[in-house]
Structures are given as structure tokens and as C-alpha cells.
Amino acid sequence: MARAGLTAERVTEAAAELADAVGFENITVSALARSFGVKDASLYSHVRNLQDLRERVALLSAGELADHIAAAVAGRAGKDAMIAFANAYREYALAHPGRYAATQIQLEPAALAALAKKSTAYARNVELTHAMLRAYRLTEPDLTDAGRLLRSAFHGYITLEANGGFSHSRDVQTSWERALDALHLLLEQWPSEPSRHAAEEEGI
Predict the structure, then answer these.
(1) Which sign does the torsion angle of CA 146, 147, 148, 151 carry?
(2) Is this entry keyworded Transcription regulation (predicted)?
(3) Spans of all domains in the chain
(4) Which end of the chain has fewer CB atoms at under 10 Å, N or C?
């Protein structure tokens, strides 16, 4: 691939493709430079270092994930929205394992500030989660607690599935659908924060 026309965006997109192919933790500036047919130094005009490159891939991927989820949940509410959200999350993670792994890294505030135009991708994912959960009549801090539960459940299931961790003959898709049914029931019966505190005070 010719050196001419390289931009930070093209380099980031190529890095995301490389992450899907070899794993996010395995992307390097050298490997990426080889894919463009250039020397490592040519890429440092567009990214500062490997950490900067990985942060850019994380932000790109977070934006893609938010777009995928937003399209899936549009016009839906309640259980339909939660299932659409979960399925979109799983579809993206399984189709783009390297990109998905990138969305799981913790970014420093300075990194988000340096890439302010794209940093809203993380906020959008939180907003989409909270918008979906508000249909269950949840407010803070329950929104955060429920969001963390869903993320943990989705991530755990997807990680085990991707790594071949489900050896039982039970169909994996059927188990996923049953798990979503259970999560919906849990969200409908979510104990409010004041109720929990009251129970603790009463010694229940």
C-alpha cells in the first residue's frame, strides 16, 4: 500500500482491522507499518506511539458499537429494547473480537480530552444503556448498578462463547435467549436503593 494518503483515520482503521485479525493485544506499530508497506517512522507522523494507536482504536470501536446498538434499539422499549441491545452487543463482539477487546480498556482522562471529538463514543454507550434501562423505571444509582450487571453478564457470556467455554450439548443460542428472559424479569423486579437501605436498617 502506498505511503501517500496516510492519515490518522486510515491508520486507526487499519489498526482496528489488524486487531480483529491478530488480537488487540498483538497490534504493533511495526506490524501496521508493514501492512502499509512503509517504515515505522512514517506512522509516527499520524500517531504518537503504540499507546496512542490503541486508544484511537478503542475510541473508534466504541463509536461503532454505539452506532450498532443505536440502530438495533431504535423505536423499541422495555424487553424488546433490552433484547435488541443485547443481541447487537453480542453480534458486534463476536464479529469484531479485536475491536471489542479495545472497547474494554480503561482510558485515561487525558487521552479522552486529547481526542475530544471521538470521546463522546463512550458517553453514547452509557447513554444508550441508561435510556434502555429507564423503561424499567430505574433511576440512579440503580441505573449504574443495573448497567454494570448487564455489561458483566453480556461480556462474560460472550467471552466464554468466543473461547469455546460452553461444552454442554445445550444449544448456546437457546441459553442466551433464556438468559435474556431472566435478565428482563430481574430488571422488572429490581430492588430500589431506598428499599434496600430500609431493609438493612430493619435488620432484614
Answers:
(1) positive
(2) yes
(3) 8-201
(4) C
